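Quick one:
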Amino acid sequence: VMARFYSSGIFRHEPHPFRPSAQNKHNPLQRLTYLAILVLVSPLIWVSGWLYLFYAQWAGWGLGALQLNWVASAHTVGAFLMLAFFVTHLYMITTGHTLFAQTKAMLTGWEELH
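Output:
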């Protein structure tokens, strides 16, 4: 429901399908996205980055069979996922009643309801 709203419903001025509250300020799509960033993307970037940084020590760690191109590809995929996350936030900033109405909500974690 949230993905459909953000991809098309928002352009047809449909009502937002989620009403935030003090106990529940993130919609289901936000929760899943933040979980994916914390559990999948961040570890991918950190682990592949450390492996990339310490490439010369791989043989000593027993990782001699690991190929650098796989680590580099994993790190690049993580970087593109973070870039997509950032670009999505830039897009979401522009979806408020004014051009930057959502900026305050992203910085503080709370949005003004009408």
